[in-house]
Protein: Phosphohistidine phosphatase SixA
Amino acid sequence: AVARACKEQGFAQFDKVLVSPYIRAQQTWQEISAYFSAKSIETCEDITPYGQSEHVFDFASALIEVEQLDSLLFVSHLPLVGYLT
Structure:
């Protein structure tokens, strides 16, 4: 439902998607990829539930700057995503 609503609001394509290596996140991306497209999709070992939020934030910030991304989607887990918001 959230993916469909995002698509309806114009959030249908991302420059890059980073997906946790954990099975549930991989399955989630498989399901929501029907609603979203991405120029680049990568599995990222650092975005697991207990990844270091400061490190992930710094990595994402650098990635956005270096690759000049307009949009970046994380497919990850709590509690990490809670710390990043």
